[in-house]
Q: What sequence folds into this?
């Protein structure tokens, strides 16, 4: 004999209960009316990133017949963008849409949720998260901050950024003042770069005045809006510190645990939808933006292999240093890097060969 409370626990159970003639209250309890606030770490002007949170909220409402409503607020409307996780952690808001690596000052382990230098590409990030234990490992860590996190967006491999001078050798990095945050900045610092933390809106004037020599932001679609090509000619790639940076839906842990299972499933699926929606939007917009930037005079440059290799080595050194004193960092690092090894073993065979051929064959 199945107990009634087990029926109330899931939407499927509630539906089965209805079919079997169970009374209505169990169903009503499993679909309460809930209104949440989501604070985004991003301004509305970044329509692709900000738009992912709106896409998520719309899906949640549709999946729950409008019972579960999430109102999206831009950065600064409730709390500043970089305080979104704190607002979730302390219950000011129920959830936020953010990049976990913004909080790497609290603990460098936060970087793995978004991206670490020479980490995973977008496809691999999804594989590690959804099927390689990533979501569980990250949540074991987020739990310490009273947060439950779900994948909710990706930009794909970012660009290396805008440089006023060409980078031909490792020597050219010495003394270079570059706007780059997080672990990427720490890796470059090992090679003589002076990393600068500058908010999006302040990058252009700093580059224009020559206060900084280089700046990374996102990719063609977002970089074009900030007009960097007018003040720095060389557009470098790839952004090896962000090979497949993923955004998160962070939910206050008690609020998450208090949701009916069906609403948890709605949030999980809406976040997964936002994850794909955002990548698809970037993959549609970036080619057009790149064409416009190049037509306007941007000079595309790959980082020299020598520079990439030196940065790769510096990243490995940095990871060993942090892992030696941070067990959470080590645990997630080891999982991700083991995954990366196998992922590229496979990737080089068919995906890479297909892409490399296609790039040549489809060149107009
Ligand atoms: Ca970036």
A:
């Amino acid at each position: 004999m199945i107990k009634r409370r087990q029926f109330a626990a899931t939407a499927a159970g509630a539906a089965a209960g209805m079919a079997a003639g169970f009374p209505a209250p169990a169903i009503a309890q499993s679909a309460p009316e809930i209104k949440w606030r989501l604070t985004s770490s991003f301004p509305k002007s970044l329509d692709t990133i900000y738009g992912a949170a709106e896409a998520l909220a719309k899906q949640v409402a549709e999946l729950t017949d409008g019972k579960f409503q999430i109102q999206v607020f831009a950065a600064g409307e409730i709390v500043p963008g970089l305080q979104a996780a704190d607002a979730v952690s302390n219950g000011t808001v129920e959830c936020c849409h953010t990049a976990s690596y913004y909080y790497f000052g609290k603990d460098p382990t936060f970087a793995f949720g978004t991206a670490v230098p020479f980490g995973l590409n977008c496809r691999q990030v999804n594989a590690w998260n959804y099927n390689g234990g990533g979501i569980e490992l990250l949540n074991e860590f987020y739990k310490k901050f009273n947060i439950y996190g779900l994948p909710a967006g990706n930009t794909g491999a970012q660009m290396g950024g805008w440089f006023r001078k060409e980078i031909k050798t490792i020597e050219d990095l010495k003394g270079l003042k570059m706007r780059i945050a997080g672990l990427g900045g720490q890796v470059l610092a090992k090679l003589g770069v002076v990393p600068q933390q500058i908010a999006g809106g302040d990058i252009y004037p700093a580059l224009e005045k020559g206060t900084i020599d280089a700046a990374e932001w996102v990719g063609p679609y977002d970089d074009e809006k900030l007009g960097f090509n007018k003040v720095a000619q060389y557009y470098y790639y790839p952004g090896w510190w962000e090979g497949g940076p993923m955004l998160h839906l962070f939910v206050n842990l008690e609020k998450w645990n208090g949701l009916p299972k069906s609403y948890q499933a709605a949030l999980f699926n809406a976040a997964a939808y936002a994850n794909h929606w955002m990548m698809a939007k970037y993959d549609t917009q970036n080619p057009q933006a790149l064409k416009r930037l190049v037509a306007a005079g941007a000079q595309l440059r790959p980082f020299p292999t020598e520079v990439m290799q030196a940065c790769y080595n510096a990243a490995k050194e940095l990871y060993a240093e942090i892992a030696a004193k941070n067990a959470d960092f080590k645990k997630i690092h080891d999982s991700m890097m083991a995954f990366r090894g196998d992922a590229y073993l496979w990737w080089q065979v068919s995906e890479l060969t297909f892409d490399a051929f296609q790039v040549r064959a489809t060149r107009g």
Remarks:
- The mean pLDDT is 93.
- The first helix runs from residue 4 to 9.
- The pocket of calcium ion is lined by residues 158, 216-218, 239, 242 (CB under 6 Å).
- Residues 34-153+244-284 form a domain with the D-Maltodextrin-Binding Protein; domain 2 fold (CATH 3.40.190.170).
